[in-house]
Amino acid sequence: MSNIRKGLKKVEVGLKWDPSPMGASPHDLDIVAATYTADDPEGRPAYLVHFDSRSPDGTITLSRDSRTGQGFGYDEVMVLELERLSERYTRVLVGVAIQQPPEGRVFGEVANTSVRVREAYTDLAEHDFAEVSGCTAAVIGEFSRDPDGHWAFRELLRGFDTDLAAFAAEMGTAR
After folding, report:
1. pTM for this predicted structure
2. 4-173: which CATH architecture?
3. Which residues form the signal peptide (predicted)?
């Protein structure tokens, strides 16, 4: 059992969705993590982790990346080793963005979407994106480090109607 009072240590974010109907272009959803320093907690992220990337120090990794939603269970999984993050980082936002084909997609057009944030066997949050069904991206949670160095999680669901590049630049404004 996790002891959240002592701070979060290692967290997993899982994302799943159903594949597109036959003949339609594939849905590609991506988990995105943005890290912020104490001197700029709402500005530009120090770095981003999303498809085909990991944090420079290896503390945030994407262990599964699906481009279609095919498979069983969670199609994408990101692991955040918060206890290993440099003291310089005090905030990490996690979100989900839809890689949009030219015609664009919103969460309401993707069947059976679900994202789960958990530490060990304790679920911290779970969303189906119904509240942001008209959006193309959403921040789902915020991890913040207190003055004692302990990490806490705050559930946050804020939708954005933008592409991945603009979403990454705007993530820090989510509160």
Report:
1. 0.89
2. Sandwich (2.60)
3. none
